[in-house]
Amino acid sequence: MSTLSTFDISTLDAQKKTVVLGLGNVLLTDEGIGVHVINKMMEMGFPPEVELVEGGVDGLRLMGVVMDIDRLVVIDAVKGGGSPGSIYRFGPEDLINNTDTSKMSVHQIGILEVIRLSGLVGKVPETTIIGVEPKSVEMGMELTPEIQSKVPRIIELVLDELKASA
Q1: 126-132 vs 87-90, strand pairing mode
Q2: Predicted TM-score of the model (pTM)
Q3: Which of 12, 28, 70, 143 has the most CB atoms around its CB within 10 Å?
Q4: Does residue 162 come out as left (phi exceeding 0), alpha (psi in the -120 to 50 range) or beta?
Q5: Among residues 159, 160, 161, 154, which one has the least CA distance to residue 36?
Q6: Residue 78 domain-assigned?
């Protein structure tokens, strides 16, 4: 049976509120990877302590999503200089404290501001960003085949993050 259809909810801490947030613009091919992954994950079924959120390009409007949660996993397209489909895992502190701007998301400033502001009015969730190097950000609503083939691996990485924080 595929990893995509078997998520063991018994490993989760029911006291820990977690959000998996997919970011991206689905009108720009691979730029929409986060939204495409979240939509696929919504087919899987998760317990109530894990909320899947299609954040699109909402930026600061995501404050309500991020405030008062314990764990945040963000999925987004990231320009890291690798080959298309490269997958990166990092935390917001890697971007905040790093003058090397090679790993840049189109939404990076928005989500970093949301995380910072949540600390001012609530608490900062433990955050992991899973970034995917896009092949194309041209107009189009479908992922390129190279990036589409990475969706199962991205979901596996998200599930690993959820299990590790349990």
Answers
A1: antiparallel
A2: 0.84
A3: 143
A4: alpha
A5: 154
A6: yes
Strand partners, 21: 53, 74
pLDDT in tens, 147-163: 999 999 999 999 999 99
149 with 40: CB under 8 angstroms? Answer: no
| CA 163 – CA 160 distance, rounded (Å) | 5
Domain limits for position 71: 12-164
Residue 3 counted as domain residue = no
CA–CA distance from 89 to each of 79, 93, 131, 164 (Å)?
13, 12, 6, 14
d(CA 128, CA 139): 28
pLDDT band at 138; cut points 50, 70, 90: very high
- The CATH number of residue 16's host domain is 3.40.50.1450
Domain-located, residue 6? no
Q: How far apart are CA 49 and CA 58, in angstroms?
A: 22
Token pair for 26: 């689905």
Query: Is 5 domain-assigned?
Result: no
How many domains would you assign to the chain?
1
